[in-house]
Amino acid sequence: MARKAFLKANCVTCRAIKQVFDGGYKGAVEGGLPAYFRNYDPEFAATDKDMGTAWSTTLDAISGLAQDAQAAGSKLVVVHIPSHIELTDDIKRDFGHRAIDTAGFAKLQPSYVRNRLQSNLDALGIEYIDLKAVMMQYRDRFALGAPMFTFSCDKHFNPLGHLVFSAGLAIELAKRHPDVFPAQAAEQGRAILESSPEQLVGKDMMDALAQGRPFRTQR
User: Interior CA angle at 27 toward 17 and 162, to 5°?
Assistant: First the structure.
């Protein structure tokens, strides 16, 4: 509870959420880019005070969680979920329509966040899993078009994104920790990655995702 209270008071994301509920969120566009994109601007990340606070707070929390896990006889593994920005070959082509001035895209490095995270976790001796390559391979194998693994109106994972990501994670965890994750998990993961999007979620859902239409999932 103490760590939760600390994060609630100090985490930049938590403060931003509070601003939304308090009516203070302005939907900031900075440097011609939606504010979220600035996470991938190394120059901005190195000089912005809130960004520095966000990184240090996050790493402090992760370090504390690793210590708690070790004390409980367990182990913390950090898994990086690649953002929609990281899963494109051309960030300006795919996201330029969201900017007022696309010149700002020249500063962005889609790999910046994951590389910085991995570097910091390596220094802390915390295990790190990055599944970007798995998702890119699946994207290329089945020639996925926009919105790929997300929704058209919301860049969180869609059902296909969740399936591909979880399959890659099952394979990686079974390889690294066979005493905890059985080989069967990896076999199921490989079967998913060998299946087409239509086989996994159905053609109707893929069409709906591509067209930005509502759809109903089957239970």
Answer: 60
